[in-house]
Amino acid sequence: MPLDETALDCLFHTARTPERWTDRPVDLDTVRALYDLVKLGPTSGNGSPARFVFLSTQDAKERLRPALSEGNVEKAMTAPVVVIVAHDPLFFDRFAQLNPEPSLRSWFAADVGLAEETAFRNGTLEGGYMILAARALGLDALPMSGFDATLVEDTFLLGEGWRANFLICLGYGEPVETPRAPRLSFDEACRVL
User: Fold this and answer.
1) Is residue 16 part of a domain?
2) Is 165 inside any structural domain?
3) Cα–chain-centroid distance for residue 193?
4) What span, in angstroms and rounded, lies between the C-alpha atoms of 14 and 148?
5) Looking at the domain assignment, is residue 67 inside a domain?
6) How far is residue 168 from each of residues 3, 66, 102, 173, 188, measured CA to CA in Å?
7) Quick one: pLDDT at residue 100?
8) 185 found inside a domain
9) Which of 20, 24, 126, 144 is the most buried (most CB within 10 A)?
């Protein structure tokens, strides 16, 4: 059954990327509810390679500051939560838990390139689910890619072996007053064969 217009507005039509944040905090229960939605999205072989690091304290965000491009510093420092969207290159080690197909783990373990490509692609997909899940829960989301991934990995992910992909700032944004940027039309962006 299709979603009603109110839900579509929440997810797409009127949803906007915030330019500034309110002081309203994002509590841990909301963060957990967010992940509980994200984990339900489909991934290849149910591999679920995405890993998320939620930076919710000012101290944690300050550790992120040196990795941010200049234009992203204020956006991230003022956001209630910044999420490092990462992926686990060894995601296939979880197949005993996630997908009992006996040959699946060895297929990925034998091909590092395939495993990395699959982890990156599906981890990115899960990051997209996070943006939509955040909107569904009443949060605003600001994805960003202007950062030094190596520095983020060295600062936050080193012990895990995860790879940084992009960041998502989460919180409750102030109303956006600038017009929505243009989008490509169906005929410009799509082909039906």
Assistant:
1) yes
2) yes
3) 31
4) 31
5) yes
6) 25, 17, 35, 13, 28
7) 84
8) no
9) 126
